[in-house]
Amino acid sequence: MTADTPFASGGKAYDYVDRYMNPYLKDVVDTSAADLDANAGKVRAQQALDLAGSGAFGGSGAALTQSQTEGELARARASTLAGLRSQGYQTALTAASGDADRATQARMANAQTNLQDRAQKAGFAFQADENQRANIATLASAGQTLHDQDQQQRRAQVDNTQQLVAMLQGLPIGLFSGEQKTGTESTKGTSKTIEGNVGLEVPIP
Length: 205
Fold this sequence. Notes:
205 residues, two-stranded antiparallel sheet, 4 helices, 72% helix
């Protein structure tokens, strides 16, 4: 839970572009430059013939014409060679961009997997805590149940004693302790004195 959040950085095409640069680009450029130089030589030679034929080879007009020609030849050479290099780089960049996109997707997938793994572990921790709390609650409930049962048993003993006492109180006490009777009883002209504890009055024959 305290770990840093997974971070997914995007892939960079320039990390891969060198892998797709045409190893023969220099050869292609050099060959094209040689062809341009050869063509420029032909242009110069043809221009010199044209100027000589017109009688303007040594004049200022010829110099201006030759200067303009050299400028155009240089620009054509530079533009052509730069175009070749740019085309080679763009081709490599397109391929490198595909690698960069795939690298970005892989990093994002890894970050998502890490997040899911962390969430799952956190869920396990929460579940374990919940289980522990549930076990404690179960033990507490069982202890309360045992306590209640013990209290009921104790109350049952007291209640039984109280009921027994109440039942005994409703019976004639003379049945158990007897009663004191003193006096004289006459039977057929004969008198008897009765003393002591008797439980019942029994007729004397």
